[in-house]
Amino acid sequence: MSLIKVSDAAAERMRSMLENRGTPDAYIRFGVKTAGCSGLGYKLEFADETQLGDEVLEVAPHVKVLIDAKSLIYVIGTEVDYKEEKLRSGFVFENPNKKGECGCGESFTV
C-alpha cells in the first residue's frame, strides 16, 4: 500500500513543474501547514534535497514526492489529482482522514 496516491495527471504536472524549474531530478514536498479557519492546509513545494525523517515516494518515473514526518499522520491515504477547468486549474486533494473543512474549502481538520 502506498502512503498517498498520485493520479497520472498530477504526476505529469509535477514532472512538468520540475522540468520548467530546470531541476528534473529534484523533489516535490507534500505536506500540511497551519492555515485557514479549520486549522490545516496542504502545501506542495520544490525540494532540492531530503531531510531527516522524510518519506520518499517515487510516484511516477522521474517524479519523487517527499512527505515530512510531521505531515505524514495527516496525509496518509490522500489522493492527489490535478484538474484543469475553464476558470481555474490546480491540485485537488481527497483525504480520507478529513473530519471537516472550512466553508471555502481552503483548510481542513482531522
Summarize the structure.
With 110 residues, this protein is α/β, with parallel strands linked by helices. It has two helices and nine strands, in the order βαββββαββββ.
The portion of residues assigned to helices is 10-25%
Distance between the termini: 21 Å
Order of helices and strands: EHEEEEHEEEE
Q: Into which percentage range does the β-strand content fall?
A: 35-45%
From the spread of the alpha carbons, the general shape counts as globular
Tally of contiguous helical segments: 2
Q: What's the CATH C level?
A: Mainly Beta
Number of strands: 9
CATH superfamily: HesB-like domain
Number of domains: 1
Backbone CA Rg: 14 Å
Strand order of the largest sheet: 3-2-5-4
Structure notes:
This protein is of the alpha/beta class. The chain has a single domain (5-105), classed as Hypothetical Protein Aq_1857, Chain: A (Sandwich), CATH 2.60.300. It is built from two helices and nine strands. It has helices at 8-21, 69-75, and strands at residues 5-6, 27-35, 39-47, 55-60, 63-67, 79-84, 89-94, 100-101, 108-109. The two termini are 21 Å apart. 22% of the residues are buried.
